[in-house]
Amino acid sequence: MRIIVHYDMDAFFAAVEEKYNPHFRGKPIVVGADPRSGKGRGVVSTANYAARKYGIKSAMPISRAWQFSEEAQRRGEPAAIFLTGNFRLYAEVSERIMKILAENADAFEPASVDEAYLEWKFQNTNSKSQTDPWKIAEERAKTLKKEILDQEGLTCSAGIGPNKLVAKIASDFQKPNGLTVVRPEDVKEFIAPMPVRAIPGVGPKTEEFLRRKGVKIIRELREVGEGKLVRWFGKWGIDLVEKARGVSDRPVSGEWSAKSIGVEETFESDTLNPAFILERADALATQVFKRFARESFESFRTAVVTVRFADFKTQTRSHTLPQPLATLSGLKGEILRLFLPFLDRRENPHSKPIRLIGVRVEKLSR
Ligand code: TTP
Ligand code: MG
Predict the structure, then answer these.
(1) Does the CB atom of residue 152 touch ligand 1 within 6 A?
(2) HEC string for the chain
């Protein structure tokens, strides 16, 4: 059997800011557009929980967030700290967290900068026995939450369920720093009182459409019946019926597409010597493959090459295979095929010498 866990970091961008700027700690923080004293355009990316108490939340106009902060000050509370965001830092922290999670999963799929699905495989056992897999999953999920807290100083919320749909809804159920386990027998009851919006794929338009039909929560959606839903939504109606029952068989893809492994090399002097360039390309492919194997990846699906010409114009070419590749010779073949056009008129009509080349693999699986 498989158990799915969904992890979602708490107030991610704002939490990272608090972590890396100790003097911000405990204060209301808003990451988003520049508020320009209330005249700013653009929106809030996220707010920490202290700022959410003022009514500030994601996607709200930044000018509105500024007003909320002004109101708080009039009540004698601290002003919110407005930050425009250090996205490189968020990406680095995200990458490290994803690594912790991926190393502890049988299959792993990042879903955004701060959320990911893990799949844990278990032997089929009697759930009454000591080795109840749902208990084991709960303990493991706690341990991983602690590891993220110890290593990165950040809290997250996790949801455990029989599929991605339920795990995702569960991770949102207790926030921040929550852990919610929904066993298969509890799924229907757990999701029944949730707003239809809790179903991934149900956006504001569908929500509004359903509201007009008198359907606000998942129980009511279930009662509508398949016939009507198909009339309203076409094929997607069938999907909705399944989702309203908490049924979903979307796999955890096992492809860590956010992660790539690559190396680059700048030549001592610009060159268009094919034998030399292909020899270096071969060597870079070997280096990439070594790192790929060391990080215990098993296959990749995309090969990428980069070429920077003497005039600094830089081009990349990539090829995504229908089937994953797992061998160094396979990678070398792909890299050769991608580089060759740069050595003749196809990609290099003016015979410009080359200054740098790079090799990268993406869509990695463990
Ligand atoms: P979320 O996980 O939706 O939000 P969050 O982590 O800030 O808060 P929560 O505790 O409720 O999970 O999004 C993750 C990050 O993505 C968030 O920190 C900032 C960014 N983001 C935006 O830039 N714009 C948005 O509208 C949303 C929702 C998120
Ligand atoms: Mg989050």
Answers:
(1) no
(2) CEEEEEEEECCHHHHHHHHHCHHHCCCCEEEECCCHHHCCCCEEEEECHHHHCCCCCCCCEHHHHHHHHHHHHHCCCCCCEEECCCHHHHHHHHHHHHHHHHCCCCEEEEEECCEEEEEEECCCCCCCCCCCHHHHHHHHHHHHHHHHHHHHCCCEEEEEECCHHHHHHHHCCCCCCCEEECCHHHHHHHHCCCEHHHCCCCCHHHHHHHHHCCCCEHHHHHHHCHHHHHHHHCHHHHHHHHHHCCCCCCCCCCEECCCCEEEEEEEEEEECCHHHHHHHHHHHHHHHHHHHHHCCCCEEEEEEEEEEECCCCEEEEEEEEEEEECCHHHHHHHHHHHHHHHHCCCCCCCCCCEEEEEEEEECEEC
Is 115 a residue of the active site? yes
- Give the dihedral of Cα atoms 200, 202, 204, 208; nearest 10 deg: -150
Q: What is the chain's alpha carbon radius of gyration, rounded to the nearest angstrom?
A: 25
Residue whose tokens read 């100083």: 153
Cβ of 57 closer than 6 Å to ligand 1, yes or no, is no
The tokens of 357 are what?
A: 């080349």
CA dist 196 and 205 (Å) reads 11
Contact between 160 and 170 under an 8 Å Cβ cutoff? The reply is yes
Give me the count of residues in the chain. Answer: 366
Per-residue pLDDT tens digits for 135-152 = 999 999 999 999 999 999
Identify which ligand lies nearest to the alpha carbon of 113: 1
Q: Is the CB of 117 under 6 A from ligand 1?
A: no
Task: Say if strands 115-121 and 2-9 run parallel, antiparallel, or are unpaired.
Answer: antiparallel
pTM to 2 decimals?
0.73
Round to the nearest angstrom and report the end-to-end CA distance of the chain.
19
* Tens digits of residue pLDDT in 186-230: 999 999 999 999 998 899 999 999 999 999 999 999 999 999 999
